[in-house]
TrEMBL record:
This is CRAL-TRIO domain-containing protein. It comes from Ciona savignyi (Pacific transparent sea squirt). Residues 13-151 form the CRAL-TRIO domain. GO terms for cellular component: endomembrane system; endoplasmic reticulum-endosome membrane contact site. SUPFAM superfamilies: CRAL/TRIO domain. Pfam families: CRAL_TRIO.
């Protein structure tokens, strides 16, 4: 439950191509959360697949305000494996938001793990450019959009 409350991964809104937006907030992750985050990834992808079978998603990897301490290479490899093995037709694109220059080396490693198709579907953008992929009404306020939604996870009753 603490992982759900942390809001590391959440689903909200749609991209301009009508795909569901799934956000991964890298800055909220620490390396000691590894196995829990992997289970959370599976939970969200499974939920989306069951709710909207056959639909694609836009996976927004928000690396703004994150540092190397927030990066889990094993988790990234796991995420890519999920899209390759367990949910092969689910991924429309990956938007990598506001990647700090310090993470360029990590990107060079990660892209070696990606399939050619995943590399083609990976786009880097700033908050300014993200509106090409998420219209202003669905773009979250902190990204410069009009949607003031903030993730909350209510505790279960009892």
């Amino acid at each position: 439950m603490e992982m759900m409350q942390a809001g590391i991964i959440c689903c909200h809104g749609k991209a301009v191509d009508d795909t569901r937006l799934v956000y991964f907030m890298v800055r909220k992750q620490t390396k000691d959360m590894k196995s829990k985050v992997q289970r959370l990834i599976c939970l969200w992808l499974e939920r989306i697949q069951r709710a909207e079978p056959g639909k694609h998603i836009t996976f927004v990897l928000d690396v703004s305000k994150s540092s190397l301490a927030n990066v889990d290479l094993g988790g990234i490899r796991f995420l890519l494996a999920c899209f390759t093995t367990y949910f092969p037709d689910m991924l429309e694109k990956i938007l990598i938001l506001e990647m700090p220059w310090i993470m360029n080396t990590i990107w060079k490693v990660v892209k070696q793990w990606m399939t050619e198709e995943q590399r083609k579907r990976t786009l880097f953008c700033s908050f300014k450019d993200v509106k090409q992929y998420i219209d202003e009404e669905n773009c979250l306020k902190y990204m410069g959009g009009k949607d003031d939604w903030e993730y909350t996870y209510p505790p279960l009753p009892g």
